[in-house]
Write a structure and sequence with these properties.
By secondary structure, the protein is mainly alpha-helical. It has one domain (3-116). Helices cover 74% and strands 0% of the residues. It has helices spanning 3-31, 44-66, 69-76, 78-90, 97-116.
Length: 126
């Protein structure tokens, strides 16, 4: 597997981890509403969400080691796109047509942005 392909794969997995962490944190916050201020901190699910966010950050940094910032950073925006179907699948949250249109527009915009990013012949600084 080439370094660029590995960078893209790591960026995708990072975005999925971030999206999962956001969904779990939201569910914990919703189920803790009306409780004391620091009640979510006592729940293992909250710490699982923190771990997912940490994993997402770690994978993002590793992806930067294999690919350029101009590729990895825009792929991080896929977190928003991945969160929509993941929330529908795992939490049962229905998304309306507006949300799906927004996800489609974000994906098309990202594809357009990545199409404009050229590869540089200059070596990256290590």
């Amino acid at each position: 597997m080439s370094a660029l392909a590995l960078s893209v794969l790591l960026s995708f997995v990072s975005a999925v981890a971030y999206a999962g962490g956001a969904i779990v944190q939201e569910q914990v916050a919703l189920s803790s509403s009306g409780a004391r201020q620091y009640a979510p901190l006592r729940r293992p699910a909250w710490w699982a969400a923190v771990a997912l966010n940490g994993l997402g950050a770690l994978l993002h940094v590793v992806a930067l080691a294999y690919g350029p910032l101009s590729l990895v950073q825009p792929l991080g925006a896929l977190t928003i796109v991945f969160a929509l179907p993941m929330a529908a699948l795992f939490v049962g949250r229905k998304a309306g047509a507006t949300a799906w249109r927004g996800a489609l527009m974000a994906t098309v915009g990202l594809a357009g942005l990545l199409a404009l990013v050229g590869t540089s012949g200059a070596p990256s600084s290590d």
